[in-house]
Amino acid sequence: MPINSLEEITDGQYDVLREIGNIGVGNAVTALSEMLGSRLIGMAAPKVGLMDIDKIADVMNGPENPIVGILITLSGDVNGMMMFAMDEGSARRLANQILMKESNETTFSHMDFSVLKEIGNVITGAYLTAISTMTGLQIRTSVPEVCHDMAGAILSVPAIEFGKMGDKALMIDSAFDETKQDINGYYLLMPDMESYNKIMEKFGL
Amino acid sequence: MGERVKVGMADYNVCQAPDSIITLGLGSCVGVVLYDKTTGIAGMLHAMLPDSNLIRNHANRAKFADTGLEDLLKLLAKKGVRKENLVAKLAGGARMFNFSGSSDISGIGDRNVQAVKKKLMEYHIKLVAEDTGLDYGRTVEFFPQTGLLEIRAVGKGVKSI
Fold first, then answer.
1. What is the pLDDT of residues A91-103, one digit of tens each?
2. Measured between beta carbons, which residues in chain B are less than 8 angstroms from residue A147?
3. ipTM value of the model?
4. What is the pLDDT of residues B61-119, one digit of tens each?
5. Number of domains in chain A
6. Which sequence spans correspond to the domains of chain B?
7. I need a surface site. Which of A61, A142, B27, B95 has the fewest CB within 10 A?
8. CA–CA distance from B49 to each of A21, B55, B69 (Å)?
9. Cβ contact B63–A154 (<8 Å)
């Protein structure tokens, strides 16, 4: 049954989203482990949830808290966009690990941003592969763009996309536990309503 | 010092001097201040989208520049503010992510700004100051006592318009 807004998501569709979330985040952990050259362990099961778009920044400690967001656009069978948002500390730890440095600066260099874009590419790609594999739908992705700014400002971009469809945002909370330091991030998957229904149709929903 | 009245995303409110009114972390959204010097009353709208007519589900009127401004004006009128006395200040509408190929995402901030300007013209409300566009987030706070809109951005300090 096609739905007109995310407010109408059924329990069956939630189960599907949770399953996609599990596999998607699982894929992303594998990909990230290879990239970091260290095994990520103890991944908590991702939480899938709908939240009010006007409260979207609250999950990242409020609208003024600085975060890093990586955004890609989707085309092909699925149109829309996907964001991976993480707190500043997580982004710093990821960039440090890849670049093998021990910086604790809160500004990011050009090189840091390149690394974060690549990480965004890998973990959103791994996630989307899960959707493609499960549905047979082809999803093309754009080159990622990265932004470091206030949570409210960065998350206004997905909030506006979701805002076109209703007043709820679909968020997937993922925690990648590395042996020493945690990396906490959120996936925001924003297919347009037509694409969302196309995905669900493949699951017979 | 007065109280600080908060305005969330897709939200509006009013305040009166010596209180101030604030909205946090504007990105591609726009913050519109309508201000009446004679009463010291100011209203602020934090709108996300330009036009309610383009969206099927438009129950949340504060989400849109057009219906949000309409409702904010009604609330100001209820507080005894005369429309002729109002002037406007505008901030936000940034391009947070720069996708060269995809104008819809990159251009939404700009379209929000244009939509507000068009509405203000229709209402004959003069826009006296703006800090819009570019590629960074803004926290904006308006002080009716001084008529100044204070803008804070990460790594850019504070400015007043």
1. 998 888 888 888 8
2. 96-97, 135
3. 0.90
4. 999 999 999 999 999 999 999 999 999 999 999 999 987 655 566 689 999 999 999 99
5. 1
6. 4-160
7. A61
8. 29, 9, 12
9. no
Q: What is the pLDDT of residue A42?
A: 47
User: Which residues, listed in sequence order, are joined to residue B127 by a DSSP beta bridge?
Assistant: B88
Q: Give every CB contact of residue B45 below 8 A, 6+ residues apart in sequence.
A: B7, B11, B12, B30, B31, B32, B34, B62, B65, B68, B69, B72
Q: Is A46 domain-assigned?
A: yes
A53 touches chain B (CB under 8 A): yes
Q: Give me the CATH code for the B4-160 domain, please.
A: 3.30.1330.200
Written as six digits, the tokens of B6 are: 């908060």
Residue A32: give its domain's CATH number.
3.40.1550.10
Q: Could you tell me the two tokens for A107?
A: 């500004």
Query: What six digits make up the tokens of A154?
Result: 């960065």
Residue from the list B25, B108, B154 with its beta carbon closest to the beta carbon of A160: B108
Best to test chain A binding among B105, B134, B135, B152 (most A CBs inside 10 Å): B105
> Domain for residue A1, yes or no?
no
Residue A104 sits at the vertex; the CA angle it makes with A101 and A110, to the nearest 5 degrees, is 65
pLDDT beneath 70, residues of chain A: 38-46, 174-181
Q: What angle do CA A11, A191, A5 make, to 5 degrees?
A: 50
**Coarse DSSP helix, strand, coil percentages of chain B, rounded to the nearest 5 percent:** 25, 40, 35
Asked if the C-beta of A58 comes within 8 angstroms of chain B's C-beta atoms, the answer is no
Strand-pair partners of A47:
A173
Known catalytic residue: B15?
Answer: no
* Beta-carbon separation of A4 and B57 below 8 A: yes
Does some domain include residue A173? yes
